[in-house]
Amino acid sequence: MTTDVTHTGIGTIRTGILGGGFMARVHRAASRDAGGRLVAVATSTAAGSERAAVALGAERSAPDADTLLQTDDVDLVHICTPNDSHASLALDALRAGKHVVCEKPLATNVGDARELAALAAASDLIAAVPFVYRYHPMVREARARVQRGELGALLTLDCSYLQDWMLLPSDDDWRTTSAGGGSRAFADIGSHLCDLIEFITGERMWRLSARTRTVYDERAGHAVDNEDIAALLVETESGALGTLLISQMAAGRKNALVIELHGSHQALRFEQERPDELWLGAREASRMLARDPATAAPDSARLQRVPAGHPMGYQDAFDAFVADVHAAIAGEQPEGLPTFADGLRAAVLTDAVLRSAAEDGRWVEVAA
């Protein structure tokens, strides 16, 4: 496999996408923005592949995933399929010599995730998982302030990720079945929350106590196989204590990811629905810091593609993530690129949550 990358920068990355739904469209937009060339698309059926190729503007469709993975003119594969297919497709892609972007969860069990992370680490391939909230500039600003010691010692965390798209008993999705894996709410959105906590703080959560709840045992005539809500107590490596609430049944909350950290000197709060702001708290006064590339930390400023006062959002974060993937393929080492090792970490945390919840909230140590 060869990738068209020159010494003057990133050349044309030839891309294939597996899947044709909403996330495939997001990945396609980000790939286009990064200068990628969408060569082929494959879904679960040949007819679906043809429709998706037209909708996404691909050069051609592939009748199935195997055919796409064996083509010589695809450098990078984006996996945007149901959760239970991620591990096998990512494994096949790596074995075929392709760089990979795999939607989370990387795998629905720790063993598969560990195998994928090890295979990726042993190769010269780029293997990334889109924990794209890392790419909000104000997340990088928060991280820089923690690294500079402005918060002091981390004391507590108050964090949540709330949505309402599964509020009603008539709400249904493939994620509620075995195709979604053993965990839904935590694996789907709680993994984003935990990744962001550990990314900003630079600390891992070393033990946790979890309770989960499935509100409706049945949706659209089929059994629900995973949880709607998860509530966690966590302790970090330094001894900070925190609460995490994850729910896909919080009326009125569309994508309310919130990180609030309390240090011995200052506090900070980031809200994903208000991504151009960072709340900074102090005993004598608190203030709202607005995104501004002129005054931001370097790692935040590099992601700010528009001037202050011009809103940036989710697709901007996704675009920046894929741009970093392309840069890594070109031989660069972009700061904060989430890899299969981070996908493994999410699988380990999910396993700990499910084990704790199965034992009525027993404290469980999170494996390394």
User: Could you state the oligomeric state of the chains shown?
Assistant: single chain
Order of helices and strands: EHEHEHEHEHEHEHEEEEEEEEEHHHE
Structurally, the number of domains stands at 2
Mean pLDDT: 95
CATH architecture of the largest domain: 2-Layer Sandwich
Do you know the CATH topology of the largest domain?
Dihydrodipicolinate Reductase, domain 2
- End-to-end Cα distance: 34 Å
Helices, by number, come to 10
Q: Strand fraction band?
A: 15-25%
Strand order of the largest sheet: 16-15-14-13-7-12-11-8-17
What form results from the Cα inertia axes?
globular
Rg, rounded, reads 20 Å
What are the segments in which pLDDT stays under 50 over at least 5 consecutive residues?
Answer: 1-9
Secondary-structure content class: alpha/beta
> What is the CATH homologous superfamily assignment of the largest domain?
Dihydrodipicolinate Reductase, domain 2
Count all strands and give the number: 17
* The CATH top-level class label of the largest domain: Alpha Beta
Roughly what percent helix? 25-40%
Q: Major sheet, described briefly?
A: 9 strands, mixed
Concise overview:
The protein is an alpha/beta fold and 368 residues long. The chain has helices spanning 22-33, 46-56, 65-69, 86-95, 110-121, 137-147, 185-201, 298-301, 314-329, 340-358; strands at 14-18, 37-42, 60-61, 76-79, 99-102, 127-128, 154-162, 205-213, 218-219, 222-223, 229-236, 241-247, 256-263, 267-271, 277-281, 286-290, 364-365.
Describe this structure in words.
This protein is α/β, with parallel strands linked by helices and 368 residues long. The chain has two domains: 119 residues, 3-Layer(aba) Sandwich (Rossmann fold); 197 residues, Dihydrodipicolinate Reductase, domain 2. Helices cover 32% and strands 23% of the residues. The protein contains ten helices and 17 strands. The strands form three sheets. Strands 16-15-14-13-7-12-11-8-17 form a nine-stranded mixed beta sheet. It has a six-stranded parallel beta sheet with strand order 3-2-1-4-5-6, with helices on both faces. Strands 9-10 form a two-stranded antiparallel ribbon. Strand 5, helix 5 and strand 6 form a beta-alpha-beta unit. The two termini are 34 Å apart. The N terminus is likely disordered.
